[in-house]
Amino acid sequence: RNAGNKLSFENCTNGELGSTTKGAVTAAGTPSSGITLGGIMGLTSHHFTATGCKNYGPIKQTGAGGATKDIRSSIGGILGAAPNAGTSTITITNCENYGNVAYGSVKPTNRVDVGGIMGTSSQEGTTTITGCKNGGKIEFNASGAGAEISIGGIGGTIQRGTLTNCVNLATGEIYSNGSSTSNYEVAG
Predict the structure, then answer these.
(1) Are the CB atoms for 18 and 54 separated by under 8 Å?
(2) pTM score > 0.85 for this model?
(3) DSSP helix/strand/coil, 58
(4) From the centroid of its chain, how far is CA 76?
């Protein structure tokens, strides 16, 4: 539902419990800009509300990542990103992710945020995530030196907001090529 600059999703479902192909969201190749993927919504710059939504489909980027330097990519089981939402509010309540969320390779100097519920939130807006659950594995293949990588069971990077009564039941893993110049941030 879109009322002006307000997006609202209620009891939406992507994929099917136990399926590794239904509801799959995949990006491949080397785009010139950032990659933003989500099980329910990829990217928003408006007020956004998701209530009772579930993602079962795998969300993954399989290519080499964005070709341009200093770009940001985001992947989330429910919402990929709200990076330019300004003063918008992002509210995610009682949502669940069971799909694996994975990012392939990253170019040097790029930033990637991968989260079971949300990838990246805005610095200016307010994000509230309440009563959410992640049961999907979070993975990242850190093949590019000089990159910044944040992964989390609930959020990759929540820049301004509140997380309340959320639970992560899955593992988060970064596979590294041994580069000592990348920054890794990992949280349950």
Answers:
(1) no
(2) yes
(3) coil
(4) 2
Residues 6+ apart with CB under 8 A from 5: 46, 47, 88
Bridge partners (DSSP) of residue 174 are 140
d(CA 83, CA 138) in angstroms, rounded, equals 20
Q: Render pLDDT for 93-128 as a digit per residue (tens, 0 to 9).
A: 999 999 999 887 777 677 888 999 999 887 777 899
Tokens of 39: 């099980």
User: Which residue is it, tokens 């694996």?
Assistant: 100
CA distances in angstroms from 4 to 46, 47, 48, listed in the order given: 9, 9, 11
Are 97 and 115 in contact by the 8 Å Cβ rule? The answer is no
| Amino acid identity for residue 53 in this structure | C
Coil vs helix vs strand at 112: strand
Query: Which residue's structure tokens are 């992710």?
Result: 97
DSSP state of 84: T
Tokens 């959320």 correspond to 166
Q: Report how far apart, in Å, the C-alpha atoms of 119 and of each of 46, 49, 116, 132 are.
A: 16, 15, 8, 14
Contact 106, 27 (CB under 8 A): no
Structure tokens at 46: 């408006």
Residue type, position 16, single letter: E
